[in-house]
Amino acid sequence: ITIYDEEHFVTYLRLLDAQTDNADWTEVARIVLHRDPASDVARTRRCWESHLARARWMTKVGYRRILEQAVEEARLDRH
Questions:
Q1: What proportions of the chain, in percent to the nearest 5, are helix, strand and coil?
Q2: Residues contacting residue 42 through CB under 8 Å, at least 6 positions apart
Q3: Judging by beta carbons within 10 Å of its beta carbon (0-12, 13-18, 19+), is residue 38 exposed, middle or buried?
Q4: pLDDT of residue 1
């Protein structure tokens, strides 16, 4: 888990919520990612896709790493 991930947990959750609601990707990019699809559709789409992919990864793999890090930190704090 990167510092970028930690700073964007809320963004990832918002993207996943929007996907569940079948929200239009352009609106999600504008509201959640603060990107203007009208100025550069291809780049905005890639940004939205990459952030959504990372959000999905967090739900399948990343959360385990967060838990593993927390367990390791707790173990080190005890010693």
A1: 80, 0, 20
A2: none
A3: exposed
A4: 85
**Residue range(s) defining the domain that contains residue 51:** 3-78
pLDDT digits (tens, 9 = 90+) for 23-34: 999 999 999 999
Helix axes 41-57, 9-20, angle to 10 degrees: 100
Please give the tally of structural domains in the chain: 1
Is the separation of the CB atoms in 11 and 50 below 8 Å?
no
Report the SS3 class of residue 69.
helix
- pTM for this structure? 0.82
Contact present, 27 and 9 (Cβ < 8 Å): no
Cβ neighbours of residue 47 closer than 8 Å, sequence gap 6 or more = 29, 33, 35
CA–CA gap between residue 70 and residue 11 (Å, rounded): 21
